[in-house]
Write a structure and sequence with these properties.
Blueprint: H1 2-35, H2 40-45, H3 63-70, H4 75-105, H5 111-121, H6 126-140, H7 146-150, H8 157-168, H9 172-180, H10 185-196, H11 198-213, H12 217-222, H13 231-236, H14 246-279
Helix pairs in contact: 1-14, 3-14, 4-8, 4-11, 5-8, 8-11, 8-14, 11-14
Length: about 280
């Protein structure tokens, strides 16, 4: 009886999973399909009635991807987004990782209140702190520089929390042994802690990369210069008052989706391990 009951439940389980996958993938399929259509009019010709050609164009063309890089110079914003994301990940690993290690393994006065500040920081909508952050960057003289895009995004309360939760499970005896052998704090961290923390490092790095890759509001405010324009701002500029180039928008959006997907898919095992192993521990 148990086996017979499990078959309908399994069918229901996979049916629900299939619906979820379709709900997630259909917008991506439509976006990618529209990027290969020959002209804007074709995008709207098949939206009234659902058919196969709603998702797949009748005639494929790659010309829009060529125009994207030759006519609009999309490679510059794309490169800016990549550089800003990589720099944020690199410095974020150092700052957030060391902060999480400190909270997990050291006792000091004011530890709990300070950690609560970190914890609540990622619950505040970015729109609330955008103006104070803009004034701070203006006072520091870093507006319209890459520093304005990278520095405010390095510290991240969620990432500190992930690191701290993961580091709590590393035995203190291992660290004591390193101290007895004469290892400094930094040598202990980079020589012992970091090699044991690959899953959480990958998870945290992917989160920070995607956050910066998809950033729009802050780059629009802090670095409006043409040379510093990032990808999401460039995509928004394809929409004008009198004309919107939908084929370019869909082509650029497809690239914006593809890059993090190519990075995430091979690392998804480590990403899941890091989130489950760190974020859900008590």
């Amino acid at each position: 009886m148990t086996g017979r009951r499990s078959i309908p439940l399994s069918i229901l389980y996979y049916a629900v999973l299939l619906l979820v996958v379709l709900a997630v993938m259909l917008p991506i399929v439509v976006t990618a399909g529209n990027s290969f259509r020959t002209q804007d009019a074709e995008i709207f010709n098949y939206t009234q009635t659902l058919s196969l050609f709603t998702f797949i164009p009748r005639t494929f063309t790659l010309s829009h991807y060529g125009r994207l890089f030759t006519d609009t110079g999309f490679g510059v914003p794309m490169g800016n987004s990549m550089l800003v994301a990589v720099l944020t990940v690199a410095f974020g690993f150092l700052v957030n990782g060391l902060a999480g290690y400190t909270f997990a393994k050291y006792r000091f006065r004011g530890k709990t209140p300070l950690f609560l500040v970190f914890l609540f920081s990622f619950m505040i909508p970015f729109e609330v702190i955008a103006i104070p952050l803009y004034k701070t960057c203006s006072a520091l003289g870093i507006l319209n520089t890459r520093a304005a895009l990278v520095l405010p995004m390095i510290g991240n309360g969620m990432i500190v929390f992930l690191y701290m939760q993961f580091y709590k499970d590393i035995p203190d005896a291992l660290l004591e042994s390193a101290r007895i052998d004469g290892a400094s704090t930094l040598r202990t961290y980079f020589g012992i802690i970091v090699p044991l923390s690959v899953p959480v490092i990958i998870s945290a790095s992917l989160m920070m990369f995607i956050q910066q890759w998809d950033a729009f509001l802050w780059p629009l405010v802090a670095a409006s210069g043409k040379a510093l324009k990032v990808m999401q701002v460039a995509i928004a500029e394809f929409t004008g008052e009198s004309y919107t180039d939908w084929t370019l928008i869909y082509s650029a959006t497809t690239i914006a989706i593809l890059v993090p997907a190519v990075i995430l898919i091979p690392l998804q095992k480590y990403f899941i391990q890091g989130v489950v192993g760190a974020g859900l521990k008590e």
